[in-house]
Every structure is written in C-alpha cells, then in structure tokens.
Amino acid sequence: MPDAEDKSVAGGAAGGTRALPGKAPLSVVLLSGPLDAHHNELFFHNFFRRTAGRLAWRTLLYERCRPEDLAACDLAIFSRPRFPEVPALLDRCGAAGIPTLVMIDDNWIAAGREFPRFEGLFTPGKPAFEVFLDGLRRADATLVFNPVLEEDVRPWARRVLRLEPNVDLSLFAAPEKDRKAGFLAGFAGSPRFEDSGFRGLARFLEKRPGAKLLIMAHEMPGELRGVAAERLTFFPWQHDYATYARTLAAMRPDVLIAPLDASRFSASKIPIKLLESAAVGAAGIYSRVPPYTEIVTDGETGLLVANEEAAWTAALERLEADPDLRRRIAANAGRLVRERFATERVLPAFLAMLQAMTDRKVTA
User: Fold this and answer.
1) Cα–Cα–Cα angle for 102, 140, 53, rounded to 5 degrees
2) What digits encode the pLDDT tens for the residues 42-51?
3) Fewest Cβ atoms nearer than 10 Å: which of 117, 130, 141, 292?
4) Which residues, at least 6 apart from 36, have a Cβ–Cβ distance to it below 8 Å?
5) CB 124 within 8 A of CB 156
6) Rounded to whole angstroms, how far apart are CA atoms 37 and 145?
7) Taking 70 as the threshold, does the pLDDT of residue 154 lie above it?
8) Per-residue pLDDT at 129 exceeds 60
9) For residue 31, what is the enclosing H or E element?
10) Dihedral of CA 70/164/349/362: which sign?
11) At a CB cut-off of 8 Å and minimum separation 6, what does 168 contact?
C-alpha cells in the first residue's frame, strides 16, 4: 500500500481559503512517516471517521507535503516526527499561523539510553533525535497517551496533552463461524525485547501437543521456530490496521500473550495488547510491568506474570485447563475496554482537544 498514508478522507481535502468559524468543517492535515499507519489509525483516524462531516482531514507523508496542502488547514498534526522534512514544515506552519500538534507514543528520549539498537537513531546529535526534540520545542502542544511518557517529554515541550488510548471495536468484527476444535494461543504484534513469554509458550506447546499456535508478526520469534507447521498459523504483519484487526478476530484465539520488558521505554507504551485481546474475545496474559500493571486486574481482566519462562508456561496451562476462567477474563476485559477505551468513549476528550488547539468546536 504505497499510498496508504497519502489520502483525503471524511469531509474533503484541505485546500482553498481558510475556513471561517461555523462556515465550514475544521480542516486538519495529519503528517506522517511511511511506516506509521497503525499509529495514525489508532490515534487519529478512529476519531476522524466519527466527526460526521464536521471535520475535513488529510493524511500526507512528510516527504509529499506541498505548501498548498497546508494553505487552508486549521491544524497541522505531526505524527511521530523524526524525518528531515519536519523542520521546514514547522517553519511553514509558523509563518502561516497554523497551530501545530506533535503526537508521540514511543519514548524516544529513553530508547537510545536503554537499547543499543536505538543508539544510532535516538541519542543526542543523531538527526532523527534532534528533529524530534526540535518538534517538541516548537509545536504548540505535544500529545501523549501514557503518564510515564508525559513525564519525560514535559521538560522539552511547550505544552503536553494526554488522552486515554482507544480502540475501534467495530474494526474487529468477524463473521460468526465455528472454529476448529482445540486450544489456540499466540501473539500478535511488533518485535519484543523480552523473550520469556515466547520461551514459556514454546514450552507449553511441547507439553500440550493438541494446542495450536497463532503468530501475527513481522517474523516468527526465534523461540517458536521449532513448532511444527501443521500446528502453526502465521500471518505476516499487515500494514493496514483494519485488515490486521479483521484477520486477528477471524482466528478467534483463546489466549494471547503480551510479553514486555521492564524498561522505561516499554513502561511508556499504551496497553494495546489488552485492548486488542479484549476486542477479539481472548483472555490475555501480560508481563507484570507497566503499563499493564496499571490497567490489568490479575485474575479478573487478565493474568499478570513475572518475566520467567515457567511463569508464562504455568499461566497458559491454567487458562487451557479452565475454560470458565478464560471466558470470565475475556468478558471482564471486554467490559473494561468498552466502558473506558472504546473510541466513542474517548472521542469527547479528543474533540475538546481539537477545540482547545483551534478555537473551533467540532461535534461527532
């Protein structure tokens, strides 16, 4: 999908003369990198689709944004800015008096300190890191979704806004059909620095030859590559979030695991695996670290486990042996997500943020 992040949707493209209050939809340009489609979907498109013609929005790649694309917009949003085009675009917005909002959902301030793989990108003096910090300093506000991340960006940003994360449950709708009998456990997500969950899952599969494995990822975790092909369903990572959501929901997994390390970088993430597990009706097992310890009630909305192979194996065995517990956890997590994190629940706060940024009221 080469043009997935270069589109005009929901109310028409930004362009023409600046809209007058009450005379035209609020015009928003969302600027993004080529690999940030999932982030944009979760944090913006979910809301944009619900504005019922009161918002005109475009999502453009940084490298493709032209002066005329910004000419009539009421708000420019910089999603995860770390690209060389960002400073000039901020200059353009500043000269035109266009309010600017930076969105960041990963703690790049901590990343380079904690992980060697990020040293080349997110340490002082590296171009991507300096562009990011420049964006924080110059944007009118910075949007985050996690209190730890809020704490770390506050010294750099003019103003920090924080919203709850959200999930569009309608994207996870799947046709009702019987799934093949058997226990299906797995993982869906980006690479993880903590491998104890995958080792525990591999050990569980060794002990339970009737269990099946589901993986939706960029590649198979190394710890699980020995699983026989007939027991494995593998889906390569989906760039389009709606496709990813439907595919995961259609598999109807019994259990999804969410291993996470204890770094500050990971503590700054949103609890996305709780949201997605609940959306597909699966019981989740989560590392006993933030952000999951702040959201998950152990034994009620998920299982929290130490990052030890034996702990993950034991949790999987417990859920496989107790279908009632699985169903109860899935139902409780589903209720939590519907009441607190569903897109429609977070939408009023998102619209209030747009109004605060632009002095324009937008209704759903």
Assistant:
1) 70
2) 999 999 999 9
3) 117
4) 5, 79, 80
5) no
6) 17
7) yes
8) yes
9) strand 26-32
10) positive
11) 46, 49, 245, 342, 343
Q: What is the CATH number of domain 170-341?
A: 3.40.50.2000
Which helix (H) or strand (E) segment is 87 a member of?
helix 86-96
Stretch(es) of the chain classified as CATH 3.40.50.2000: 7-166+343-358, 170-341
Provide the residue type at 2 as one letter.
Answer: P
Q: Buried (b) or exposed (e) across 229-240, using 16+ Cβ within 10 A? A: eeebeebeebee
pLDDT at 245: 96
| Sequence-separated (6 or more) residues with CB below 8 Å from residue 97 | none
Class of domain 7-166+343-358: alpha beta
Q: Position of tokens 């109310």?
A: 11
Please answer whether residues 93 and 48 qualify as being in contact, where contact means their C-beta atoms are separated by less than 8 angstroms: no
Q: Which amino acid is at 146?
A: N
